[in-house]
Write a structure and sequence with these properties.
single chain; about 150 residues; alpha+beta; Jelly Rolls; 2 domains; four-stranded antiparallel beta sheet; 8 strands; about 25% helix; about 35% strand
Length: about 150
């Protein structure tokens, strides 16, 4: 029987080379993937779903929002008084990263929101005061959001 053996230096280089590939190759791709995916997440504009006939949240292709706002962190906004026939505003919100929100317009509603899911939509009756309407959006500092308010008669 004949044995073939590699010189000790070749065996050592192969072992070090294979170990180096196994230990170092996955780390950069994993860290890159997680950092790029978190920075790429933005909240989706709810108006895209409201105008999309195939969406579960379709309202109308021509509906004009009373409020269409993109921002970051908590904010208070004034909205001009709407026509007397409008009795409430229906709000749709998305946010990134996923978080909790509260929307206040004399009354409030709150819940979880995510970058693309509109299931946390709700209506708030308009207060009887004159002008302007004040809407408060409460999300944690640093959370990005898209908010749309549709007038309802």
């Amino acid at each position: 029987m004949i044995r073939l053996a590699a010189p000790p230096i070749v065996a050592a280089l192969l072992a070090v080379g294979l170990t180096g590939c196994t230990n170092f190759a996955p780390a950069p791709s994993n860290s890159f993937a997680s950092s790029s995916s978190s920075s790429a997440t933005k909240p989706r504009d709810p108006l895209l779903e409201i105008h999309n006939e195939d969406s579960d949240f379709y309202v109308s292709k021509t509906v004009e929002p009373a409020l269409h706002k993109k921002g970051t962190g908590p904010v208070s906004l004034d909205v001009p008084r709407l026509a007397p026939s409008i009795s409430q505003l229906k709000f749709f919100i998305t946010c990134a990263p996923a978080s909790n929100f509260t929307i206040t317009l004399s009354k409030f509603y709150s819940g979880p929101c995510s970058p693309s899911d509109l299931t946390s939509s709700g209506s708030i009756p308009l207060p009887s005061s004159k002008d302007p309407l004040n809407v408060t959006i409460d999300v944690p500092k640093g959370v990005q959001y898209w908010l749309v308010a549709i007038p309802i008669e």
